[in-house]
Automatic annotation (TrEMBL):
SUPFAM superfamilies documented for this protein: RNI-like
Database matches in InterPro entries: LRR_dom_sf
Protein name listed in UniProt: Uncharacterized protein
Source organism per UniProt: Haptolina brevifila
Cited Gene3D superfamilies: Ribonuclease Inhibitor (3.80.10.10)
Domain of life: Eukaryota
């Protein structure tokens, strides 16, 4: 997008870019690579900036994990290939396999749970919270909040599948997710596989009440979660809506 100074057609293109920016980040099929490492002389960290917070949050709503990469997790210097790696990747024909091992695996980000628009407004400091996100243009704060709210309702209100797999989530993230799921009436499949810090108490307090807001939900998958979770959940499972399949191990 064209930055200042802008002239003529650049102004129109910039405005159209702002109008569509949420689509680029939130779409389930786009790849988002976050450059989270900032120069040493830059006082504003990536996660303290308003626009990057918006971009990361909307990209985290419904995207599969491998489509959202945190490139700040890459080492500053690329280590030399081992002998075994040189055998695996002898030439550029194997670049996709190399990308998967050296870039994709370390950079798949552990994302936060989706925020409702009300919670996002607090993150931006629109409710008077301290340590709010920074904006170069203060007028952007309200614009970003409105853009997030519109994106959230469009995306969460129409999505049929959500995959939050192996993100090291616990009950705190489950509480945020439970509030967001109240806005997912079309959801049919929800996967929380591999989140081993989720407890039976968290499921009972935050997830089960949200199921009533998802009349189309057909599968809830909680494979490879905490050992013993299935047994602890047995009493609560009697409350599951008819027609809902629970996959748990």
């Amino acid at each position: 997008m064209h930055q200042e100074p802008r002239e003529g057609a650049q102004v129109a293109l910039f405005r159209e870019g702002l109008r569509q920016i949420n689509v680029l980040y939130a779409h389930q099929s786009t790849h988002v690579w976050c450059l989270t490492r900032v120069p040493k002389d830059e006082p504003r960290a990536y996660h303290m900036r308003g626009w990057t917070t918006f971009e990361l949050r909307v990209a985290s709503l419904i995207k599969h994990a491998e489509l959202l990469l945190n490139l700040g997790l890459l080492p500053l210097r690329r280590p030399a290939l081992t002998a075994a790696q040189r055998k695996l990747y002898p030439d550029e024909d194997h670049h996709l396999e190399y990308f998967g091992e050296e870039v994709l695996r370390p950079c798949v980000t552990t994302r936060d749970a989706p925020l409702t628009p009300e919670a996002f407004r607090k993150t931006l400091g629109l409710e008077g919270e301290p340590d709010a996100k920074t904006f170069t243009n203060g007028a952007d704060r309200g614009f970003v909040a409105e853009k997030y709210e519109k994106t959230f309702h469009e995306v969460m209100g129409s999505t049929e599948e959500l995959w939050f797999v192996e993100l090291d989530w616990g009950d705190a993230e489950l509480a945020l997710l439970g509030r967001a799921l109240a806005h997912c009436p079309q959801l049919q499949y929800l996967s929380l596989d591999g989140n081993q810090r989720i407890t039976a108490e968290g499921v009972g307090a935050h997830l089960l009440p949200a199921l009533a807001q998802m009349p189309q939900l057909r599968v809830l998958s909680m494979l490879r979660c905490a050992p013993g979770l299935h047994a602890e959940l047995l009493p609560a499972l009697q409350q599951l809506p008819a027609g809902l399949k629970l996959e748990i191990s």
